[in-house]
Amino acid sequence: MARDLSKFLAAEKALWSKYGITPMERRVKLRGGNEVRIQQVGDGPPLVFIHGVCVAGSSWVMLADALKNDFSCLLVDRPGCGLSDPIPGGPTQTSDGFKQSADELTVDVLDGLGLETAPVACTSMGGFFGLRAAIANPDRISKVVSYSWAMGSPMANVPMMMRLGSPRPMKALMIRIPIGAPAIKLMFKQVGMKRAIETGTFDDEMIAWSIAVMKHTETLRSETLNNPFISLRGLNPEVLLTDEELARLRSPVLLLWGEEDTNAGEPEAKAFAARLPDATLEIVRKAGHAPWIDELDFCADRTRSFLAA
To answer: What is the rounded distance in angstroms from the CA atom of residue 234 to the CA atom of residue 280?
Structure first.
C-alpha cells in the first residue's frame, strides 16, 4: 500500500479546522528511545488522552473541543500510531511486552512534559494503557476516565472478523486490504460504533481522517502485527486485568460506558466496576463504543464534574 504522509496531514488539518482549532504539537522521548507525538489543545490543568485501536490522538477531536476551556488536553499518538515512532524492536506478539509498554507510556509522557501528576482519559485499547499506568504508578495518575469498554476487561463478544484476522498469515493479508469509506464504516460498526456511523455523528471529515491514518501512516500495520489480545478462540486471557492487579488501583475511576457497546454492555460494565476499589459507573444511554461521539455534552459534563471533585 503506497503511503503519502501529506495526505494524512491534509485530512488531519481538515478535521481540526472544522472545529477552528490548530493544536500545538510536541514530541516526547520514551525510555525505549522512541518518540511519541502529542497534540495540545486548550488551557488549564493537564489531561492526558490515550486513544483506541487503529486510530491516533486526533480521534478525540470532539471531546478535546468540548473541554478545551477547562483543561490542557494532551492527545498522545500511541507508539506506532499516527506520527509517533514505531515500537522499538519491531512487531511483537508477547503480552508481557505490551503490559510493560502500558505501564510505562503515560509516566514517560508526564516526565517528558515536566509534569508530576495528571489524570488520564482513555478508551478501548487506550483503556488498557490508562488503567495499567494507574496501577503501576499510583502517585503519578491522579484519576482515570475510561470511556466504554477497555481492553483488559472481560469482553462479551469478540467479533468474528477479529478472530479470523488473528493468525499471523491473516494479519499480513489484512494490512494489504484496500482502505476506503465502506471498509472503515464496517470495521467501526463491528467494534461497537454502529450508532455513530449510522447517525452520521461520525461524519465525513472523521471518516476521511480515519482512512488517511490507516492508509498513509504505519498505524494499521503496527496495530495489526503488534496485537497480542485476540486469537481464534477469542480474548487472550493473559491480557485480562486480574483481581490482584485491580485491587492495587488507588486512583478514582469514572467509567462512562456506552449502553450499546457491542464489546461489552451494561452487565459486564457493572461486574467490572464492582472489581475496582474506587469506581463510579455511568451507563451512557443511546451510545456505543465511543460514547463521547454519540453523547458529547453528557460525557463532557461528567468528565468535568469528576475531575473537579
So the answer is: 28
**Cβ-contact 225, 175 below 8 angstroms:** yes
Q: Are 184 and 191 in contact (CB under 8 A)?
A: no
Cα distances (angstroms) measured from residue 258 to each of 8, 245, 262:
29, 24, 9
Contact call for residues 28 and 38 (beta carbons, < 8 A): yes
d(CA 15, CA 209): 7
Cell, residue 150: 477497555
Is the per-residue pLDDT at 133 higher than 60? yes
**What pTM does this model have?**
0.94
244-278 residue pLDDT tens: 999 999 999 999 999 999 999 999 999 999 999 99
**Complete DSSP assignment for 125-186:** HHHHHHHHHHHH-TTTEEEEEEEEEEBTB--S---HHHHHT-SHHHHHHHTTS---HHHHHH
CB neighbour class for 281 (10 Å; exposed up to 12, middle 13-18, buried from 19)? middle
- Other C-beta atoms closer than 10 Å to the C-beta of 168 total 11
pLDDT tens for residues 209-230? 999 999 999 998 888 777 777 7
Amino acid of residue 144: V
| Alpha carbons 81 and 56: distance in angstroms, whole number | 6
Output DSSP code: residue 217: S
Q: Which three-class secondary structure state does DSSP give residue 104?
A: helix
Q: Is 117 left (phi over 0), alpha (psi -120 to 50) or beta?
A: beta
C-alpha cell at 290: 465511543
251 C-beta neighbours (distance < 10 Å), count: 23
